[in-house]
Amino acid sequence: MTLHTVDVLVIGAGAAGLMCALNAGYRGRNVAVVDMGKKPGRKIIISGGGRCNFTNQSASPENYLCRNPHFVKSALSRYTQYDFIDMVERHAIDYHHKTLGQLFCDNSAHDIVDMLTTECDWAGVAINLQSEVVKVAKTDDGFIVTTTGKDYQCQSLVIASGGLTMPKLGASPIGYKIAEQFGLSVLPTCAALVPFTLHEQDKQRFDGLSGISVDSEVSSIDGTRFRENILFTHRGLSGPAILQISSFWKAGQEVSINLLPEIQLSERLLQARNESPKQALKTALSHLLPKRLIERLYDANELPDKALNQLTHSELNELDDYFHNWKIKPNGTEGYRTAEVTLGGVDTDELSSKTMESKKVPGLFFIGEVADVTGWLGGYNFQWAWSSGWAAGQNA
User: What is the DSSP annotation of 100-165?
Assistant: First the structure.
């Protein structure tokens, strides 16, 4: 067996892996990246509708889920969103701001991949694609990694293999298997930032509403809230607010949706009653929410079929509570197939928050989505990839 000797081998040519590789390369390390795909940065390319929401101006530790909430602080503070924006601007990539601090490429997500691979090229990094990892073994002074392409000997091994989301893009549990092989704890994983599916009864109840979007505030049982749109789909509920709350949802729980976050409904209905006493409640509600949604709620006999001047004080209060605290119990989620990220992963208690290196196995690093760090929707997960990749790249 011919061994290709490198200082640093990175498994995974995604956001975190490329970021780590170029930084290690600039330190004068001999770096190789292996990836089972045909192209680097496959998840980057399809992200943000092909425009890549590459970071968020508001990125801070509070925007991340991790069993140890302090773990993300070091990397995020030492390589910030503004450091990455500087790189984007150095490469003359045009970008724009969207709502809630999100930054997107003007042109294409390919611009971000091209930037990273160009930097890797400048740093002397070799990227070897269509190379699947078959075996990893520890040696006295590093690791031997067998792939379907070449066999490598390295001092530092960086696992940037991602999670289980989007299996069509080649998602693999290899990172978790390597962690377990070396005795590291891996926390249970599940799909996150993912649409909800509904029970059959609710699916039928909302059949035909696919495509309707409503500005809402969605809350989980633990009180976490997100204010963005929800979207009815032919399978259930999606939209930014639903994707956000899915990371906090557990099977069997209800979610609460304020369908009118800008309006105090009882006051608005009293005002409408003063102006037009005989107007049907259904008509008044259809001025505030999509008519098709209101019709479905009437079809399910969930609302009184009355004129405004027939409503009692009690009924006004009940309507207020119904629309400001609309409850629905999802059947489940659409799973890894459509999820943005994987919740859970390599336990961060096993890793140095400064370097991303295993505390048990010197020279073994875990970065990006493979670790138990999950960001909110809106560029936060990419920022974790850049920050954790940078941190490992300074030390691998």
Answer: GGEEEESS-THHHHHHHHHHHHHTT-EEE-S--EEEEEEETTEEEEEESS-EEEEEEEEE----SS
Which letter, b or e, does each residue of 31-67 get, where b requires 16 or more Cβ atoms within 10 Å of its Cβ? bbbbbbbeebbbbbbebbeebbbbbbebbeeebbbbe
> What is the residue type of 196?
F
What class does CATH assign to 195-333?
mainly beta
Q: Can you list the alpha helix ranges (DSSP code H) found in 27-90?
A: 42-46, 73-78, 81-90
pLDDT tens profile 229-248: 999 999 999 999 999 999 99
Would you state the structure tokens that stand for residue 285, as one six-digit string? 């509600």
Q: What is the mean pLDDT of residues 360-372?
A: 98
Burial status of residue 259 (CB atoms within 10 A of its CB: 0-12, 13-18, 19 or more): buried
Instruction: Check if the beta carbon of residue 387 is closer than 8 Å to that of residue 76.
Output: yes
The DSSP code for 358 is B
Helix (H, G, I), strand (E, B) or coil at 44: helix
Kindly state the tokens that stand for 61. Answer: 């530790």
What's this model's pTM, rounded to 2 decimal places? 0.95
Per 3-state DSSP, the chain is made up of helix, strand and coil in percentages (nearest 5) of: 35, 25, 35
| DSSP 3-state of 234 | coil
Task: Give the count of beta carbons closer than 10 Å to the beta carbon of residue 253.
Answer: 12
pLDDT tens digits, residue range 93-105?
999 999 999 999 9
3-190+343-393 to CATH, choices 1.10.3720.10, 3.50.50.60, 1.10.3210.10, 3.30.465.10? 3.50.50.60
Residue 29: how many CA atoms within 13 Å on its side-chain side? 25
Contact 203, 229 (CB under 8 A): no
Q: Using the predicted structure, report yes or no on whether residue 1 has a pLDDT greater than 80.
A: no
Q: Which of 167, 92, 116, 131 is closest to 14 using CA atoms?
A: 116
Q: What is the CA radius of gyration of the chain?
A: 25
CA atoms 63, 251, 235, 237: torsion sign: negative
The domains of the chain are located at 3-190+343-393, 195-333
Q: Within 10 A of 213 (CB to CB), how many other CB atoms are there?
A: 14
